[in-house]
Design a protein that fits this description.
There is one protein chain. The protein has 3 helices and 44 strands. Strand 37 and strand 38 form a beta hairpin.
Length: about 550
């Protein structure tokens, strides 16, 4: 029996050929491939070539300056621990494709490398300890089937790319945390045969800190059953960009309110079949098929959107009206299979592509606020719009009647908005009440309503329409936007109090709230003073009195 000879290989920093020194910078491709003697190596090289130690007996190495590990370089080696912290400002430190694949004895990794390529640690089933603080890119299947991994931590990076399949098969991975990360990208689905289609953040997995990330891309929460509207709206308030597929098919999303989001990517919320309302006040762009087949969607709050790309709301059959005051461009089939009644288009609209509204056969009113008719095609609207009224700005009726494809609307009128406001209001001095006002038909102007009081000594009004009684009397509260205005007549009554009531100490009172429900019986004056603050009706043999406590 021949005993195996163990070899500790030391690669010199410099070699001499004909007395000329040459720096050793690379261990070349396949240099020690399938070598059955070497078990350790120390070298100051910058790079390890492809297959350099493939399927060798190497169990440890010391490579302090290496910044590039080639494809399959250590695949199948019985390594147990890896430390790679080489740095070169002129190179992106990279662990190549399948570089440590099937290193089945590997337990720990500590590396400052930035790129971990596809399948780099595939099938490293004993790997538990991972320290990759500077990794900015983790490729497809990089840690696939490393099912001993339980948690991961990433921090202090502007952005990080983690392919959606990077940790597929890591069945014990329960937490992926993020700290001081601005952008997370999960890539795109591979459409090849048998390709993985799933989420980066799986059901049952926690992701501390992900809510502080401003930009999300790729299928991070793809078909995630655990994510709810409350979680998304409450914790993701810093989110600015939602890329392709991020929340695709999430059944727990019912309402969407994200105040800082400026763009929505392709199929970002496609197939969220329980989503009923969206409010995105800063959103500027809605991507391709972004809300496709959100079949429960009824309410759209997208006042600042300027571009809607094709198919964005395809199949959203329950939308009842669409208001787009700042729209510039609407893409092909944007609202295909929708059938709402009212459509409001702002003054900046330039073009609507084919089939955008072609299935909206129930359109009752279209409001186009651009003085110049936007560009449309023969197939933008349904072929028969004889029962649809088109309202346009003052002075532009004849332009629309002469414009290609707009002229097929049989009824074209000037837009005449009307202010609808509460007509009367009675309050007490010191009391504050909201007055309701809106423009009808639905307003296309996004500037705030201007409020004013005819007599501030009687009642004042805030910029939001909240009226406060000051002193007894009557005044008018006016609401104005552009050339449209209306007013509410406000009556302020003197504030009543229990001190105004002459209460006989020997008389007992029954006390009722304003809903007519008795809250106390047989009260004397002292009992009345001890009631909780509010307005009550006192009933006695002498009659009834309304008082405020």
């Amino acid at each position: 029996m021949i005993k195996k000879t163990s070899v500790y290989l030391v690669i010199p920093d410099t070699v001499y050929i004909d007395e000329v020194p040459y720096k050793v910078s690379t261990i070349c491709e396949g240099a020690f491939k399938k070598n059955r003697h070497i078990d350790s190596i120390s070298a100051s090289v910058d790079s390890i070539g492809d297959y350099a130690f493939y399927s060798s007996t190497l169990i440890r190495f010391n490579l302090p300056n290496a910044v590039l590990i080639g494809a399959h370089a250590f695949e199948g080696c019985p390594l147990t621990d890896i430390e790679l912290n080489g740095h070169n400002p002129n190179h992106i430190s990279t662990i190549g494709e399948a570089a440590f694949k099937a290193c089945i004895k590997l337990k720990s990794i500590s590396t400052s490398f930035e790129v971990i390529a596809d399948s780099a640690f595939l099938y490293c089933g004993r790997l538990t300890d991972i320290n990759i603080p500077k990794a900015t890119s983790i490729g497809r299947g990089a840690f696939r089937s490393c099912n001993a991994i339980t948690d991961l931590h990433f921090e202090n990076l502007d952005s990080i790319y983690i392919d959606v399949s990077a940790f597929i098969g890591c069945t014990n991975l329960k937490s992926m945390s993020f700290k001081n990360i601005n952008a997370l990208n999960a890539g795109k689905f591979d459409n090849g045969y048998g390709a993985y289609r799933g989420a980066l953040i799986q059901s049952g997995m926690t992701a501390p800190g992900i809510n502080n990330i401003k930009r999300l891309y790729g299928p991070i929460f793809y078909r995630q059953k655990d994510l709810t509207s409350w979680e998304l709206n409450t914790y993701f308030d810093k989110l600015e960009v939602i890329g392709d597929d991020v929340f695709y098919g999430c059944p727990g999303l019912t309402e969407l309110s994200l105040p800082n989001v400026i763009s929505i990517g392709k199929e970002a919320f496609s197939g969220c079949t329980n989503l009923t309302a969206i409010y995105l006040p800063r959103a500027n762009i809605i991507g391709l098929c972004a809300f496709e087949n959100c079949t429960a969607l009824q309410s759209l709050g997208i006042p600042n959107v300027s571009i809607i790309i094709g198919g964005a709301f395809w199949g959203c059959t329950k939308i009842s009206s669409v208001n787009l005051p700042n729209i510039r461009r609407i893409g092909r089939s944007a609202f295909y299979e929708c059938n709402f009644k009212f459509l409001y288009l702002g003054e900046n609209l330039e073009k609507i592509d084919d089939s955008a509204f072609i299935t909206c056969t129930g359109l009752y009113g279209v409001y186009s606020m651009n003085m110049t008719p936007p560009i449309i095609s023969e197939y933008t609207f349904p072929s028969d719009v004889q029962y649809t009224t088109l309202q346009v700005p003052k002075g532009s009726v004849q332009l629309y009647k002469a414009a290609d494809f707009w002229k097929k609307f049989s009824t074209i009128l000037e837009y005449t908005p009307e202010m609808q406001i509460d007509k009367k209001l009675t309050i007490e001095a010191g009391e504050s009440v909201q007055i309701n006002a809106r423009i009808y038909p639905k307003d296309l102007d996004t500037t705030p309503i201007r409020w004013s009081s005819e007599d501030n000594s009687i009642a004042t009004v805030s910029s939001n329409g909240i009226v406060t009684g000051i002193a007894e009397g009557q005044t008018k509260i006016s609401a104005t936007r552009g050339e449209t205005s209306g007013y509410c007549r406000v009556t302020v009554k003197k504030k009543e109090s229990v001190d105004d009531v002459k209460v006989d100490a020997a008389t007992e009172y029954d006390v009722y709230n304003l809903q007519g429900i008795m809250v106390r019986s047989k009260c004397d004056k002292a009992d009345i003073y001890n009631l909780p603050g509010g307005i009550y009706i006192l009933v006695s043999p002498q009659g009834r009195t309304k008082v405020r406590i």
